[in-house]
């Protein structure tokens, strides 16, 4: 395993983002791939009806996933080199990443 591969695997394994809704009713922690690692509802959440609370939860998860994608993109650019990928581009597939790390372009854009 190359050093870059190890660094990428570590960065992805350790990555998480915490986002709190504007009104502080909902806090979520997400990992790579949109995995919700934690969900916290403050007492403010109980002022919402069920459907409204669901909308706040979904919006907060989406915001966290957006931030996660941005952070992973920055980590990848740092490890692979700033000119390697455009900012906030989708992450490459494992096959594309292996090809890129082995020196080819792997079709990643």
Sequence stretches where pLDDT stays below 50 over 5 or more residues: 105-109
Share in β-strands: 5-15%
What percent of residues adopt helix (DSSP H or I)? 40-55%
Please give the count of helices.
3
Radius of gyration (CA) equals: 17 Å
Bulk shape = elongated
Class inferred from helices and paired strands: alpha+beta
The number of E-state strands comes to: 3
The biggest sheet amounts to: 3 strands, antiparallel
Query: What average pLDDT do the residues reach?
Result: 83
Q: What separation lies between the terminal Cα atoms?
A: 23 Å
- Give the strand order, joined by hyphens, for the main sheet: 1-2-3
Order of helices and strands: HEEEHH
List keywords for this structure.
47% helix; three-stranded antiparallel β-sheet; elongated; alpha+beta; 109 residues; 3 helices
Structure, explained:
With 109 residues, the chain is α+β, with helices and mostly antiparallel strands. It is built from 3 helices and 3 strands. The protein has helices at 3-14, 50-80, 94-101; strands spanning 17-20, 26-30, 36-41. Strands 1-2-3 form a 3-stranded antiparallel beta sheet, covered by helices on one side. Strand 2 (26-30) and strand 3 (36-41) form a beta hairpin. Helix 1 (3-14) packs antiparallel against helix 2. The protein is elongated, with a radius of gyration of 17 Å. It starts with a helix and ends in an 8-residue tail after the last helix.
